[in-house]
Hints:
The C terminus is likely disordered. The N and C termini lie far apart (44 Å). This protein has a four-stranded antiparallel sheet with strand order 1-4-2-3. By secondary structure, the chain is an alpha+beta fold.
Amino acid sequence: xxxxxxxxxxxxxxxxxxxxxxxxxxxxxxxxxxxxxxxxxxxxxxxxxxxxxxxxxxxxxxxxxxxxxxxxxxxxxxxxxxxxxxxxxxxxxxxxxxxxxxxxxxxxxx
Length: 110
């Protein structure tokens, strides 16, 4: 089972201790696998859940009421493991890798 918490302190307050802690990156994505709450007061992501129904359960009077009071918004997100990007990823992002150059190997540097 996977749990997503905003801070290490929140992890330490749960019974989830002992498992591996992995930092993740949340990106707004209409096809994302999770839902979260964007809190307008402190502009933070909270309550990351795999379904909208589970997110709605975090609010005693429902998420619709919280949105009507302009306290925040539900957002669909993609969850990815945060990793240090390697040299090849950085070069590819800058367009410095070109497998189409004659004489170069696929993925070779130009």
